[in-house]
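Protein entry
_____________
===
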Amino acid sequence: MNRYKQIMICAKIRELVQKKQYQNALDLMNKIELERFRSRVDQLDFIEVYLHTLHYEDAKDLLLPLYDHYPTCHVIHDLFFVSIKLQELEDASEYLLEYEERAPKDPERLIMEYTLARDQGLERKELISILEKLKREEYTEVWGYELAKLYHKEGRKKECIRECNDLIVWFQKGRIVNKAITLKQLYLGTATIPLDEIQKEIRSKEEEADKLIQEVTRVCKDLYENVSATEEIPEEHTEYHQPEPEKSSAL
């Protein structure tokens, strides 16, 4: 394949990465000579594809040369992640220390610390301590629910319920909030349908009611239209009148 065609394919790979269509991007990567594209932007695109398609060894092969020339936080973070996936925990620990030195106030360092501690098999009390610190710096629903689960596993009922309440108040709806509602109800001893399911059920009932009203209206209309002219019919029922839509009060 000539150079021009490879450049066009590489441009298409970048487009697919932006759309998060990683498998399609990987298929195209297998058609070009990756070593011919040495720019950092191209390399980061290739690495992102490998990471999202679980090709961790291939990602590492591209990350290490980048680390030698561009040891950015992004590269260090990806090397940490790859090391975790490959269960190279000593390397992961070194990358974590370097990341902490470069970004001592970045909350991501605590997520990395928790991930490493979990894979090292540290006690839940230590894992809880890390996530409590993360919550003080940056509260997210994913790690908030992880903290709630750890409280639950430790038998810390009060803290678990409190964390579930925080999740419900802060984020209000969504898959994780539904999980928090369910976890909370384990302690309260009542069965509660998650908010999303309640809303879905209400919409379903409303749709059923609308269909029933339409059917009753149609049947009544047919009945009145087919009544014999000799029958006595109350005057107000001699014709079917479609209710007029309410007039908007807006100017």
Q: What stands out?
A: The chain has twelve helices and no strands. The two ends are 66 Å apart (CA to CA). Residues 227-251 have pLDDT under 50 and may be disordered.
